[in-house]
Amino acid sequence: MTVSNFSPQIHQQHRFSRGAEKAKQYVVNEKLYGRAPLPLPKSVTLAQVIQTLPKDVFTKNMRKAWQQVVITYSAVALSMYLIHLAPWYLLPLAWVLSGTACTGLFVVGHECGHMSFARQRWLNDLVGIVSFVPSLYPFESWRIQHNHHHANTNKLHVDNAWQPFQRDYWLSAGPIEKAIMRQVKGSFYWLASIGHQIKEHFFLSSFTPEQRPRVKFSLACVYLFAAVFFPTMLYNVGVWGLIKFWLMPFIGYHFWMSSFTLIHHTLPHLPFLPESEWTDAQARLALTVHCEFPAWVEFLCHHINVHVPHHVSTSIPAYNLRAAHRALLDQWGPYMTSVEFSWAMLRDITTKCHIYDEDVAYVPFEHIEQPKSTKSFERPPSPKLD
Asked: Which of 57, 95, 201, 375 could form a disulfide with 324 if both were Cys (CB 3.0 to 4.6 A apart)?
């Protein structure tokens, strides 16, 4: 089934239905997010979507793969040199570059975790571990948990990335916990991925007995790196040097990691769905967001924000994502969501997408504090754009 089976007039509406069989609709702010996507029919399968992709987008090219490695390590090295040279008032610019370059380093490891860097498992593991340890990510732990996210994208209570808080949980939380929750979904969202990194990847109880040997090896790599790296840095450049050369790039990386992952799966009109309404094809094609960031960010981060084809199939290497995206647009465009990054959009997400609501997808914290019987929250649609 392709988009040609539907009237093009349908998607001129300002509301997005959660499914073809549901009458429930979510208001779309077209000024920030563009047109409302059509609801993907539940009869569409992921296999049907993948079949519309050209075969060459799955082809691995080792020259292009190693080219990404060279670009990334060169950008990281250049940014460290600029941090070394920069006077104090230019350090923020150098940190922005280094944080973005370090995000590219993570993307290289991300490719390896999906086996889309090389054909050989050992080579993916080697490059992945080396790319991950500077940001203290245990490669195998991350791979397992990240694959869980791909298999359960935007599934309520199951996906492990950016789950909306539940109303009952919010109401039962104490003042300190509520304050933390406000920051995690609000002004300090950009630190949330640090908490996710610790919670999801460092506890053996999160993994099956069969998974634990490889997880233990990845954890050992991180602990060994930390045991050597941090004392060496402190001895040679001191506390300020450690902050300047590692901590600030680390925070910059997490700004992008949190921003990317938040926007990829959280817009005010794109819901998390209960398992009874969730389908794999819908989650990967229609509930995953393509976001265009500035060209220099896309270059250094290897176009990871061309995110819809990556969710349709993790076998597509990063350097083929744009070709795959164009193919998906040709066949499934009206069902897809494409946005352009703006600070206004980010502010809209972080001030509205807090608590799960089955009627309007998300409501802000302030709304939940009102008595439920007086609930009357609905985001007004934006005016039509000429």
From this structure: 57
